[in-house]
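Incident log entry.

Two folding requests arrived from the same account within the same minute. Monitoring flagged them as a possible duplicate submission, but the sequences differ. Recording both here for audit purposes.

Request one:
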Amino acid sequence: MGDMTGEHSNNSEALTRYIKCFEYGSQGNILKLHDETPGESRSWTRHYEYDEPSSIIPSEKKNRLSCTKIKSRIKKYHYNGRDGITGSIIAIPSVPTIEYNY
C-alpha cells in the first residue's frame, strides 16, 4: 500500500507502528481487513464480498471473491471462460487479463 504521509517508502524516518486486524467468515474467507495508526487519523478498512455462483452448485454462493471495497472505491474480480469455471480469477482491476497455461 505504501506510506500515506507522502514520504518515500524507503525512508526509515517515515516508518511508524500500525495495527492490522482481520475478520474471517465461517468458511474461512477474509471479510474485512482494517489498518490503523494509533494516535493518528490514518486508518482504512477493506471489505471483501463473495457473491459469485459456485461452479458445483450454481444456485449457491461460496468462496469466490466478487469485489473489495475501501470507502467508495470498489474493485471487481472476474471468473469468465474456461479458467473462471475452475475458480481461477481471470481479471482484477490492476491486471485486466490473466491467462493460465495448465
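Request two (distinct sequence, not a duplicate):
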Amino acid sequence: MSGAEKPRTGGCLCGAVKYELTGDAAKPMWTTVCHCLNCRRRTGSALYTASICPKEGFTITEGEDMLSTYDDTMTDSGEVLKRQFCKRCGSNMFNFSSRYPVVSISAGSHDDFEDWKPTLEQYCIHRADFVGKAAGVEKRYVESIEGELEKEEKTGTS
C-alpha cells in the first residue's frame, strides 16, 4: 500500500504556514506523546503530541518564510533537534532530527486531528503526576524509543 495513502494537510493557528503529507509520509511511522522536559517547555504544557513521518513526501506548501528555527542542543537524547514555529502566531509546527530522515509534526496542526491517536509514549520517566497513561498506546518507553520499555504496574491481589 506504499504511496496509496490519501494526502494529509495541516497548518498553524494564523494560517500563514501550511503543509502537505503525500505518499508514505501521509501515514505516520508512529504517533507519539512525549513527556521530555524540552517538549514540555516547547509546548508550555505537560506533554507534546506528534506524528513522526518520513521527510520524503513532506512539503511546506505556504509560509516557509514565516518559520523560525531553534536548534535545541540540550535534548534528553543528546540529539540536536531543529524546532520550527510560526513567527506570527507562535504555533509549534515541526521538529527535524539530526540523526534520522524524519519530521515530527505537531499533532494539533493536522487538519484531520479528530482521527489522531497515539501509538507510543516516550520519556515516561518525566510524565507529570497528574497525567495518566494515554489510552490505546502500544508501547511506553522510559526514555527514548531506543531504550527500555516502561514496566506495567501489576494490579489485583495475589
